[in-house]
Specification:
Elements (H helix, E strand, L loop, with lengths): L12 E5 L2 E6 L5 H30 L5 H26 L4 E5 L4 E4 L15 H9 L11 E3 L5 E8 L2 E8 L2 E5 L5 H19 L1
Antiparallel strand pairs: 1-2, 2-3, 3-4, 4-5, 6-7, 7-8
Length: 201
C-alpha cells in the first residue's frame, strides 16, 4: 500500500511490518507532572507498610481492640489503591497504533497517564471529556482487530474547538488520533479513506 508522505515535523511514525503499514504516535506523558505524585505515593506506601505490619502484629498477638480489624481492612484497601495508582504513574503512556493491510485493520488507541488530559489546553475537546470523567484513564482500552470491509462511516468532523476523526464498529463510534494536530489528522483521514476504498474494490 503506497501512502503519501506525512506532514513535515509530524509525530506519526510510518513503517512497514510484513505486508502491512504501521502508523504509530506517542501519547501525552507530562513526566514532570507524574514525578511528584509518584514520589509522594512511594513515601506514603512506606508509611503504609509500617502501619500494616504493626496492625497485623497487634492482631496476631491478641493485644488489639476489635476496631483494629475493621481499621486494617480499610487501611489495606487504601494501600492497594495507592499501589495501583503508583503503577499507572510509573507506567506512563502507551502509543496509539494503526496497522493497515489488505486483509486487516488493527487499531490500538494506546493509553495515557492520569495527568495527561487534565493539563492539555491544546486539546480542549478531549480535555472536556476527561474532566467529565477524570478516572477514564482506568478504563481498559478497546483494541480493534477486524477486516477492513467492516469499517463503517469513516469521517473527519470539524467543531469550534477542534476535529474528530472517527469510524463506527457496530453501534460504537471510535475516535482515532485525538491528540494529533489538525494537519496530521487530516493526512491520516486521507490515508484511511484511500485504504478503505482500496480494500473494498
Amino acid at each position: 500500500m503506497n501512502i503519501p508522505p506525512p506532514p513535515e515535523g509530524t509525530v506519526i511514525s510510518v513503517e512497514p511490518v510484513g505486508g502491512a503499514i504501521r502508523l504509530s504516535w506517542k501519547r501525552s506523558s507530562e513526566k514532570s507532572m507524574r514525578s511528584f505524585p509518584a514520589a509522594f505515593l512511594i513515601f506514603w506506601l512506606c508509611g503504609w507498610a509500617v502501619g500494616e505490619f504493626f496492625a497485623i502484629y497487634a492482631i496476631l498477638s491478641g493485644e488489639s481492640e476489635p476496631f483494629l480489624i475493621f481499621w486494617l481492612c480499610g487501611w489495606t484497601l487504601g494501600g492497594i489503591f495507592a499501589g495501583v495508582m503508583l503503577y499507572i504513574f510509573l507506567r506512563g503512556p502507551k502509543p496509539e497504533i494503526l496497522e493497515l493491510s489488505a486483509s486487516r485493520f488493527f487499531h490500538d488507541p494506546g493509553s495515557t497517564g492520569f495527568n495527561a488530559y487534565l493539563f492539555m489546553p491544546r486539546f480542549s475537546m478531549q480535555r472536556s471529556k476527561q474532566m467529565t470523567n477524570p478516572f477514564a484513564f482506568l478504563k481498559k482500552r478497546r483494541i480493534v482487530d477486524m477486516h477492513p470491509g467492516e469499517i463503517a462511516n469513516l469521517r473527519l468532523d470539524s467543531f469550534s474547538d477542534g476535529q474528530r476523526l472517527t469510524y463506527d464498529m457496530g453501534a460504537e463510534r471510535i475516535e482515532i488520533g485525538d491528540e494529533l494536530r489538525e494537519p496530521e489528522r487530516e493526512w491520516l483521514a486521507k490515508v484511511l479513506e484511500a485504504f478503505t476504498k482500496r480494500s473494498i474494490h
